[in-house]
Amino acid sequence: MPSYKSLVDKQRTYFKSGATRSLEKRKHALNQLKAMIEEDGEELANAIFQDLHRDGHMEVGMTARAIDECLQKLEEWSAPTKLPSGGLLDPNSDQLYIVREPVGVVLIISPWNFPLITSVPLVQALAAGNTVILKPSELAQHTAEAFERVVKKRFNEELFAVVNGAVQETTDLLSERFDHIVYTGNPAVAKVIMSAAAKHLTPVTLELGGKNPTVILDDADVELAAEKIVGAKMMNCGQICINPDYVLTTSNTKPKLISAIREAFEKQGELRDNAAFARIINERHFDRLKALASKTNGKLAWKADGEEDRIGKFLPPSVYEIEADDELMKDEIFGPILPIITVDGIDQALHFIQEREKPLAAYIFSKCPEATRRFITETWSGGVCVNDLQTHAFVSNVPFGGVGNSGVGRINGKYSFDNFTHEKTVLIRGGVGKEIPLNKL
Ligand code: NAD
After folding, report:
1. 3-class secondary-structure state, position 351
2. Annotated catalytic residue: which of 241, 321, 332, 385?
3. Average pLDDT, the chain
4. For a Cys-Cys bond, which of 31, 166, 195, 327 suits 138, CB 3.0-4.6 Å?
5. The complex's ipTM?
6. Domains in the chain, ordered, with CATH?
7. DSSP state of 162
């Protein structure tokens, strides 16, 4: 049984020595990461291709942008705030500050579907002056091994280490004490992570998935909705946490939508030869999706050409017309299957969504401001995108995270940086503070 005690102890000793704290040290770590992405990005992109049969450069580019953003904003995000000392305090001799300090040793556990970008919180954790242990998913094995190789080349394990392994290794890691844990994956395992963290009162950020609804009203641009659905299902073969999981539309719009989806998919050509169409991650997930398709009581409305191939993990996209209690509505689909449920309009669509777990993303296609307003205010979700799918998750300067069953906390840029930073109130009395320069706190 592996023990990670010595690694965690080593990182904590390094952290406590103050070695990670200065802006110079943090910038140095970010520049090392930048060099890693510039020089070894190709190796990482190739590994992603081997795991998922899709281009990995987008993930490399997004990671590079996250590093650049941290380098640019580091001073602003880390700076202590001096507050006016009034009320109880003596403005002549008292100083009041918020000092931003790193939390310590951070554990990041990432999934297989976007193995590099789901690991990006490591960038902000290092930027905030912490040490990091990254546990990539064993399901994206090539990427996990490449990650370990390229990190080992540049980083001392006191500051940043990659630990590879499966459930046993993760369980052993979780028996150690961390100062923050970020887990990205499914809600069932998230409960295991949260229980382990609770033993040490460790704060967690949980980035999970769920069943994301897409409402398409009668006044919607149906061609646009179909194009967006096809774009989303093409991306990573629908294996994305913010993917449109199911559609709610009226009996009037449904036939137009199905034929527009068929046309939009046909424009993509032969999917088997299309480098933009990823493969299912492994045979277990291929079998899971096949079992779903065999258990549905829905009507197959359309299926793309191409023979299913378990060894090659190629699964052609399909669209089903289903009832609300269908097997396809039980769990997150996470693949190229799209169920459509008929509703009679916005009221029934809102009710349908309100009755279920809060999803990570909720989508609506409509030209009606009032229906859109009601969708935003009468549903609960991690984020909303109107007349588009998924794009809200790719913009910077906004929080990204779920709510309820789709997650706890948020990530992205400054929001991630703040997860890994404790805002410490400091009151200095007796005039001593005047002698301490603000930039030394
Ligand atoms: P996975 O199977 O790769 O698991 C994720 C991580 O959890 C891995 O590192 C794995 O080793 C670890 N793990 C698995 N079982 C464990 C256990 N019993 N105890 C401890 N650790 C364990 O990935 P997955 O869960 O299949 O990922 C897909 C899910 O992730 C989907 O639900 C998707 O929606 C979600 N996701 C969410 C986001 C987001 O940002 N919200 C992003 C990507 C994926």
Report:
1. helix
2. 241
3. 96
4. 166
5. 0.96
6. 5-208+402-440 (3.40.605.10), 213-394 (3.40.309.10)
7. E
